[in-house]
Amino acid sequence: MPFFRPYLWLKTASLVDDEAEARQAISTLPEGGAPQFFWVARPFPFAGIGKMYLLTGRASEALPYLRRAAEGCTGAEYPIGYVRAAVPLGQALEKTGDRDGACRAYRSVSQRWGAATPRSVTAERARSLARAAGCPER
Looking at beta carbons, which pairs linking 71-79 to residues 24 or more positions away fall under 8 Å? Predict the structure, then answer.
């Protein structure tokens, strides 16, 4: 079973919702770190791991995971997770000083889901974060 421990951790750590859960997940990070990208194709664990780092104030460490989730080549296969991952990606980019990148990430959500019926809570959040970041409206 030792081989599977990092993957079990990956699955559970990718579900964190708040800072306390994120800190707990980081404290149980397997020896050798999170599993490498090539072992997991779906964007969900990457978005969750990125969110875990973001919630604990480690935006730079979150970026590779969030980029993989929101900018990888899985958008056609997993469109919902792909679009949702752009919001924390924008937040991480903002926190690392890349406002233009953050604006692009937020805009990607608004462009895809901004006119959704019923309304998209994710698109509303992206628009709100974009306004707070001072992103130009398009």
Answer: 72/43, 72/46, 74/41, 74/42, 74/43, 78/42, 78/43, 78/44
